Amino acid sequence: MRIANFTALVALVIATPTLAEPDWKAVGQALGKEGSVMPGGVYRVGLPRTDLKVTLDGVEIKPGFALGSWLAFKPMHDDAMVMGDLVLTGEEVNPVMKKLLDNGIEITALHNHLLRSEPATMYMHVAGQGDAVKLATALHESLALTKTPLTMTTAAAGPAPTVDIDTGAIDAVLGFKGKANGPVYQFSIPRAEPVKDHGMEVPEAMGSAIAINFQGAGSGKAAITGDFVLAADEVNPVLRALRSNGIEVTAIHNHMLDDEPRMFFMHFWGNDDPQKLAKGLRAALDKVKVAPN
Hints:
Mean pLDDT: 91
Number of strands: 17
Shape: globular
Strand order of the largest sheet: 1-2-5-6-8-7
Radius of gyration: 21 Å
Order of helices and strands: HHEEEEHEEHEEHHEEEEEEHEEEH
Largest sheet: 6 strands, antiparallel
């Protein structure tokens, strides 16, 4: 009897088809911009708003610093889920929102990340479930209503821009290793516990990690921006730590609708000595349950 049951089990396993990963190349083609596969099986597409010229407190905001739209796809049962953040001008917000809703894409948040930026930008968080190529097609139709570049541009001749701040010293203070993205130095710091949305784990590449960006601001200064991903009881301790260290808090809000545990996203801005800013960020990180480094 046991042998018969085991044989039946083996036959069932062999007969059960494995879930096929979506055709990511087809997804990139439908979206109009190809991405790359990230840890956790996530296909992430960066859509920097290189068309925008934004300044804040005299600092020219680089696309990778605070103007980076992105979309991330992940297999989900027989289909896929997509989450993302679209950087939009005020005039683009409502046409894009209507097109997304018409195509079955959910809007999970709309808000600012920065204060005093010229021109002002808004950030629209989106989510959807279904066939990956159909989702990408719907998102392309929405992005087509903006001036978001959807093709790979050829880099201008000359040396690539580099980070002009002491990144090693920042790493030492924060206790994490960052990564250079042109002139921007970026940190992605995952939380200790997984974050889920609609019962599915949201990997780091889909926006569940703390993001910290540094950009040289001239005269030995650096600008910082990003967001802390926080549980409810962490919000005010982090808020106090940032403000007591001279770092502005520019927004506190949600990015998801059905996340578990409930997460709050705290955006920040600073323009000061890099070491001073790093120490303030470290004081805030000490109030958060982050994954061991």
